[in-house]
């Protein structure tokens, strides 16, 4: 039974799109549940204790426990709120507050966990790094380890797997705490699962399950159970996957872990989409989206919107798929607006630099100690020899340093010359390619112009002359010969004008041309390509010049993806709706940071073509999450 409370707009949206019951093949009832308000999961005794105490240290301790309870149950906003309250107490520098360093760590820990839950991953990184930098490991070992664990978990969510693996491996090696070992094993399994190494991921999750067997850690046990469901789905063991997801949903609801419940519903909907059970998929994903919106879980909203878009796309409902893509871009922009990436990057770099400096300092200390011992032994054993070499050694050292300097300078000069030669060759090559592309574009434009002039002007004049000759009253042999010559000339002009426009765009349907091109790409590469166009008749009836431009833009997009993206699959969709042509091009490649984007010749050519068409280009990409290119072209009224 679905329970919906609170905002009426949410109630209506859910009620309009979701069925109340669905019976699986095993005839077992599956229950989805949504909440119109954030459920109250905190024991009233904690709030009463907070209200009844004025002692600063006791307040700080209670604030941390309340915030931590909110975090356990997936309430990101409340977790951030209590983290800020603790930081407020610390910033007052009250003489009554003991263990300021401990409370600083706890405040940053809550801020990191809350921002992580809300999908503000850069803000989470900032909190964890600042907390780790401010915390002394020897005095506050537990808080320091939890901060590092949170930092590693955030790296996993961002797709920075190598940075995460370094921290988890260090924790496994140095910690004897079973909770830390279980969490480290679980996230190493999650990283391996993202890389689709199912066998190794299964070993990590089995190891986590063994460690947890004698522990009271219900939240982590639910995550492990959900991960086994995801493994089953990847192996196409769909019945097993449904069982894991249903058990996870039921236990998460009973224990009030609403974020895990929503993740399980999302995975349930994905498998339904894969099996083309679209009605069930829409119900599950819509319910998950309602909960994610209520709790302001932006990153989770993105994942659910994308799954819904794929569901509608596979179902053939391209209008709703397009609307969801617009919503996906809105949520992405909302996340970017809430994060100060530049400041966070600087803090992250400072943290990494501090770590490296500490390592270098320790190595230097060790080297100095060893060197001191060596020098002491040499002084004792060979004191008389140093007296003889006191003048000779500095001279030899100076000569050696001078020789090394000459050698190094010579190598640097040689390397600089090679770099300069490479740069010059690269610039020349780029200029030649740009000139060639510009020449081809100009040639294409000129061919259209000449063809139009031949067809419209000269062809029209010849048709007029032919009509006048036909209307002459006299019907002489000379008149017939002139008529025949005019007619031959008209046909010749018409053939020339048609030859100037690429024949394949006149003799073949545009969608067929694209499908042939895509089939050739699939044969010659290992990329799986999905292509659709709607409505086909309208797309085929586009004017020839626009079809040529679109064909070349699509070629450029596929070329860039094959050369740079390292993608396994590509989806390309054409759609015409309300006088607007839309191209959605999506790959699952390595992606990139938008602020670090360097526009190559291919992207510049696409932008130039779109500028001439009065079109709009939108890019959405994240490292290790792929790239989405959306192009919108307004069509002229026919």
TrEMBL record:
Residues 344-371 form a coiled coil. Its EC number is 2.7.13.3. It is an enzyme of class 2 (transferase). Residues 449-637 form the Histidine kinase domain. The chain crosses the membrane at residues 383-403. Keywords: ATP-binding, Coiled coil, Kinase, Membrane, Nucleotide-binding, Phosphoprotein, Transferase, Transmembrane, Transmembrane helix, Two-component regulatory system. It catalyses: ATP + protein L-histidine = ADP + protein N-phospho-L-histidine. InterPro entries: HATPase_C_sf, HATPase_dom, His_kinase_dom, Sensor_HK_TwoCompSys, Sig_transdc_His_kin_sub3_dim/P, TPR-like_helical_dom_sf. This is histidine kinase. It comes from Croceitalea marina.
């Amino acid at each position: 039974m679905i329970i919906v409370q609170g905002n009426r707009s949410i109630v209506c949206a859910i009620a309009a799109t979701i069925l109340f019951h669905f019976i699986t093949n095993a005839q077992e009832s599956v229950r989805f549940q949504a909440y119109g308000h954030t459920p109250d999961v905190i024991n009233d005794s904690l709030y009463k204790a907070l209200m009844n105490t004025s002692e600063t240290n006791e307040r700080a301790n209670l604030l941390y426990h309340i915030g931590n309870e909110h975090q356990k149950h997936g309430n990101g906003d409340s977790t951030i709120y209590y983290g800020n309250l603790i930081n407020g107490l610390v910033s007052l520098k009250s003489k009554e507050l003991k263990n300021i360093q401990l409370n600083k760590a706890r405040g940053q820990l809550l801020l990191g966990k809350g921002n992580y839950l809300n999908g503000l991953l850069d803000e989470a990184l900032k909190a964890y790094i600042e907390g780790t930098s401010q915390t002394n490991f020897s005095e506050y070992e537990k808080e320091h380890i939890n901060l590092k664990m949170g930092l590693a978990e955030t790296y996993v969510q961002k797709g920075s797997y190598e940075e995460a693996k370094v921290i988890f491996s260090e924790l496994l090696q140095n910690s004897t705490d079973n909770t830390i070992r279980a969490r480290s094993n679980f996230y190493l399994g999650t990283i391996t699962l993202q890389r689709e190494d199912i066998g190794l991921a299964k070993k990590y999750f089995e190891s986590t399950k063994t460690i947890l067997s004698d522990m009271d850690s219900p939240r982590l046990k639910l995550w492990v159970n959900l991960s086994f469901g995801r493994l089953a789905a990847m192996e196409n063991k769909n019945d097993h996957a449904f069982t894991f997801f249903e058990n996870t949903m039921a236990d998460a609801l009973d224990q009030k872990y609403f974020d895990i419940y929503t993740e399980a519903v999302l995975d349930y909907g994905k498998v339904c989409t894969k099996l083309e059970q679209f009605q069930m998929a829409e119900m599950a994903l819509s319910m998950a989206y309602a909960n994610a919106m209520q709790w302001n879980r932006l990153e989770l909203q993105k994942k659910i919107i994308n799954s819904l878009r794929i569901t509608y796309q596979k179902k053939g409902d391209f209008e709703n798929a397009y609307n969801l893509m617009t919503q996906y871009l809105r949520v992405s922009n909302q996340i970017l607006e809430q994060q100060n990436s530049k400041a966070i990057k600087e803090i992250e770099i400072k943290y990494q630099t501090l770590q490296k400096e500490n390592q270098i300092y320790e190595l230097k200390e060790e080297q100095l100690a060893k060197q001191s011992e060596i020098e002491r032994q040499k002084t004792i054993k060979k004191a008389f020899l140093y007296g003889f070499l006191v003048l000779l050694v500095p001279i030899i050292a100076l000569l050696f340093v001078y020789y090394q300097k000459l050698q190094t300078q010579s190598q640097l000069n040689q390397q600089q010359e090679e770099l300069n030669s490479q740069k010059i060759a690269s610039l020349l090559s780029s200029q030649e390619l740009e000139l060639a592309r510009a020449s081809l574009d100009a040639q294409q434009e000129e061919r259209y112009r000449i063809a139009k002039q031949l067809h419209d002007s000269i062809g029209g004049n010849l048709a007029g002359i032919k009509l006048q000759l036909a209307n002459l009253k006299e019907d002489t042999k000379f008149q017939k010969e002139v008529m025949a010559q005019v007619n031959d000339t008209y046909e010749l002009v018409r053939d020339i004008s048609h030859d100037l426009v690429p024949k394949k765009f006149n003799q073949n349907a545009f969608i067929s041309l694209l499908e042939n091109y895509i089939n050739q790409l699939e044969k010659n590469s290992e990329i799986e390509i999905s292509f659709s166009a709607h409505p086909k008749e309208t797309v085929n009836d586009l004017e020839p010049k626009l079809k040529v431009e679109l064909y070349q833009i699509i070629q450029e997009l596929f070329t860039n993806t094959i050369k740079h993206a390292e993608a396994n699959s590509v989806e390309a969709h054409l759609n015409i709706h309300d006088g607007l042509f839309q191209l959605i091009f999506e790959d699952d490649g390595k992606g990139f940071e938008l602020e670090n984007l360097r526009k190559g010749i291919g992207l510049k050519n696409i932008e130039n073509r779109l500028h001439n068409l009065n079109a709009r280009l939108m890019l959405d990409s994240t490292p290790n999450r792929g790239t989405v290119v959306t192009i919108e072209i307004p069509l002229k009224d026919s």
